[in-house]
TrEMBL record, chain A:
Keywords: Transferase
Protein name: Acyl CoA:acetate/3-ketoacid CoA transferase subunit beta
Top-rank taxon: Bacteria
NCBIfam families xref list: pcaJ_scoB_fam
Protein's organism: Vreelandella boliviensis LC1
InterPro entries membership: 3-oxoacid_CoA-transf_B, CoA_trans_fam_I, NagB/RpiA_transferase-like
UniProtKB/TrEMBL annotation, chain B:
Pfam families named in the record: CoA_trans (PF01144)
Organismal lineage: Bacteria, Pseudomonadati, Pseudomonadota, Gammaproteobacteria, Oceanospirillales
SUPFAM superfamilies: NagB/RpiA/CoA transferase-like
Species, as recorded: Vreelandella boliviensis LC1
GO molecular function term, any single one: CoA-transferase activity
Name assigned to this protein: Acetate CoA-transferase subunit alpha
Presence of the UniProt keyword Transferase in the record: yes
């Protein structure tokens, strides 16, 4: 039985086009690494200063000078380069990274994203998230549809401090794939076996759904 | 600035005259590039009320984590503390002031100081909480925030190789903030595993030219082992 997260990651991997430069955020998006086929011409960027990350193979000894931004020991693929932090963020701010995948505490119908701070509870600093969210050409949010208490994370309007405004292109949860459009959130795919009514019940934002065109994943 | 032929020194001598209350840049992103041996020497040397500038706070019990736990850090300027719960506790208890900058802005503030500029203009964070208190200006219809450069009294950097004039070569993701900080402080102390004679490093592989470096200290490769994380595959 495939887990919700495996299904989300399999679906998210289909967002990556051969030839792209991709950044993977901390948490679930980091695991997307393992879902990108080796034969694709894709370079994974990590903001600590590497373009062309590859997971270590089983049995491969760690190189203590080679990590990704989450602190995992990695290796590199052909075509990779390493560089300093200023160059790494130049790549981000100049939109030379094609797509980034990030987690979210909240995301709303206008594509606003909150994923760095819960005032009074969680404030470890924003790291590289703000620049990635604001500047990468395409931001795909990869998150659970609801928080651990069952509250909706896909909102009409974010309540938490924003990482960046109007930055999200697409949201992939275990329940649906949703695009941010000028008219609002449009559901393009819904999870196998889930009803449109059940999806609406667990979502705060209004959803645009054309059932005749709705895909399943 | 030190004369070219007088830069190689003993590690304890290199940190001994860092004053109390100094502002110190520390290279590294997580463990790679963190000058662990210099930080241990600074801990042993005893200076207090330090302001540290580092991308992160390492992890509990290693690197700047040791200085924070010893109560020696008055203020930390950083981008993220996520891997160091004791640093978060010190911040929440009010024992250490913490200033956060988005990571790329922190890098650029340091880079600016290193190239002799007073600051730069950016659109990062406009309209968010980060922008509070920043000066903004309009140029040709675009709004920009002014980000001042960030200098320091001292920078502690880690290089894979050096020569005794202070030319530096970094390795893999141990580069990160090191080349930026190596240009941005009044006094720059570089630790390295190997000190070659001038002329031994291929000239087109040198990342930081010796002009920016004050002291070169040779350290044992084993000193970086404290930064090795448990890991899974």
């Amino acid at each position: 039985m495939i887990s919700d997260q495996q299904r989300m990651l399999t679906r998210a991997a289909r967002e990556v086009i051969d030839g792209q430069i991709v950044n993977l955020g901390i948490g679930l998006p980091t695991r997307l690494f393992h879902y990108l086929p080796d034969d694709m011409n894709v370079l994974v960027h990590s903001e600590n200063g590497v373009l062309g990350c590859r997971p270590r193979q089983a049995g491969e000894a760690p190189d203590i000078d080679m990590i990704d931004s989450g602190g995992t020991y990695i290796t590199t693929r052909p075509g990779a380069s390493v560089f300093d932090s200023a160059t790494s963020f130049a790549m981000i701010r100049r939109s030379r990274v094609d797509v980034t995948f990030m987690g979210a505490f909240e995301v709303d119908q206008e594509g606003n994203l909150a994923n760095w701070k819960i005032p009074g509870k969680f404030s470890p600093g924003i790291g590289g998230a703000m620049e990635l969210a604001q500047k990468v050409a395409r931001l795909v949010v990869l998150c659970s549809h609801n928080d651990k208490h069952g509250n909706p994370k896909i909102l009409t309007r974010c309540q938490l401090p924003l990482t960046a405004s109007r930055c999200v292109s697409r949201i992939i949860t275990e329940k649906a794939v949703m695009d941010v459009t000028p008219e609002g959130l449009e559901v393009v795919e819904i999870a196998e076996g889930l009803s449109v009514e059940a999806l609406r019940e667990t979502t705060d934002a209004p959803l645009l759904i054309d059932e005749s065109r709705l895909g399943r994943f | 600035m030190k004369l070219l032929n007088q830069k190689v020194c003993d590690i304890d001598a290199a940190v001994a005259d860092i004053p109390e209350g100094a502002t110190i840049m520390v290279g590294g992103f997580g463990s790679p590039g963190t000058p662990f041996a210099l930080l241990d020497a600074l801990l042993a040397s005893g200076q207090r009320n330090l302001t540290l500038i580092k991308n992160d706070a390492n992890e509990p019990g290693i690197g700047i984590g040791k200085l924070i736990e010893a109560g020696r850090v008055k203020r930390l300027i950083t981008s993220h503390l996520g891997l160091n719960r004791t640093a978060i506790e010190a911040m929440n208890a009010g024992e250490m002031q913490v200033t956060f900058h988005p990571q790329g802005l922190l890098a650029e503030k340091i880079r600016c100081a290193g190239v002799g500029h007073g600051g730069f203009l950016t659109d990062i964070g406009l309209g968010t909480e980060i922008a509070e208190g920043r000066h903004e200006i309009d140029i040709k219809g675009c709004t920009w925030a002014i980000e001042p450069a960030l200098q320091a009294d001292v920078a502690l950097v880690h290089a894979e190789r050096a020569d005794r004039y202070g030319n530096l070569i970094y390795r893999a993701t141990a580069s990160n903030f090191n080349p930026l900080m190596a240009m941005a402080a009044e006094r720059v102390i570089a630790q390295t595993y190997r000190i070659d004679e001038p002329g031994d490093l291929p000239i087109d592989t040198i990342h930081t030219p010796c002009a920016f470096i004050s002291h070169v200290v040779q350290v044992d490769r084993a000193s970086s082992q404290q930064g090795v994380r448990p890991h899974d595959l």
